[in-house]
Amino acid sequence: MPQPDELAQPEELSTLSKVSTPSALRRLHRGELPSDTVLLARYLIGKLLVHDVLDGRLSGRIVETEAYVSDDAASHAYRGLTTRNRSMFLERGHAYVYRIYGAWDCVNVSSEPPGTGAGVLLRALEPVQGVTVMQARRGTTRVLDLARGPGRLALAMQIDRREDGVDLCAGGPLWLGAGGAAAVVIGESVRIGITREAERRLRFYERANPFVSGPPRLRA
DNA sequence: TATGAGATTGGCT
DNA sequence: GCCAATCTCATAG
Q1: A116 touches strand B (CB under 7 A)
Q2: A4-7: long-range contacts (C-beta < 8 A, 24 or more apart)?
């Protein structure tokens, strides 16, 4: 028997009151994005990821990111340009979507100047709009679990490798947004699920937000 | 050319 | 807690 807070809520009540009304939503332009990967990873916490699809608008508040900097052995771009990672070398604000473990797609935002391979992995969202569509795609009614984790996030947001290389700042259906003024308390930790460069504290998240992934000590 | 590991998740023990 | 699913790349032969 699901608990009340796990059940689907009406669209207008699904944001835990942390996000401003949709009317305040606006697109981020590239000039607002920090070029530096770590600064971008921090900057994106509290911003919105929006995907306008046939079923309507899907959006979520970004609550967890990881930085994959240049000269980082954990980064897909560490050994140079390949067909898979080429989007990491684009100008900041492009999507890098890759498949992991043969099963799940993960979404990154490219960073650094063109030609430098780096990016910010989006690890978790707090769903804002299109919750019922996300529930159908994810096969669960648990709003907390819809986009908690990078593979879940991509599935909920209807993002797959077709979006690889898309410019998130070009006025297209997949974009980055900002809502009203909401104070964000950012925590940092080591990154999740990697072995190389495991000691670097390049994961950022909104403190105490229940939509953040990872064990409790990495969410506090 | 073959094989193993990886920025994960869901289902089962 | 363990394990399979199954794609891309690095490394070995």
Answers
A1: no
A2: A5/A144, A6/A141, A6/A142, A6/A143, A6/A144, A7/A141
**List of A residues 150-209 with CB within 7 A of strand C:** 161
> Could you identify the residue whose CA is nearest to the C1' atom of nucleotide B9?
A151
Measured from the CB, is A191 under 7 Å from any atom of strand B? yes
Domain A4-218: which topology?
Answer: 3-methyladenine DNA Glycosylase; Chain A (3.10.300)
- Asked if the Cβ of residue A79 lies within 7 A of any atom of strand C, the reply is yes
- A71 class by beta-carbon count within 10 Å (0-12 exposed, 13-18 middle, 19+ buried): exposed
Find the Å distance, CA of residue A214 to C1' of nucleotide C9: 27
Rounded to whole angstroms, the distance from the CA of residue A23 to the C1' of nucleotide B6 is 41
Residue A55: CB partners within 8 Å, gap ≥ 6?
A130, A133
Separation between the CA of A169 and the C1’ of C10 (whole angstroms): 33
pLDDT per residue, tens digit, chain A (220 aa), is 333 333 333 343 344 444 445 568 999 999 999 999 999 999 999 999 999 999 999 999 999 999 999 999 999 999 999 999 999 999 999 999 999 998 899 999 999 999 999 999 999 999 999 999 999 999 999 999 999 999 999 999 999 999 999 999 999 999 999 987 678 999 999 999 998 999 999 999 999 999 999 988 899 9
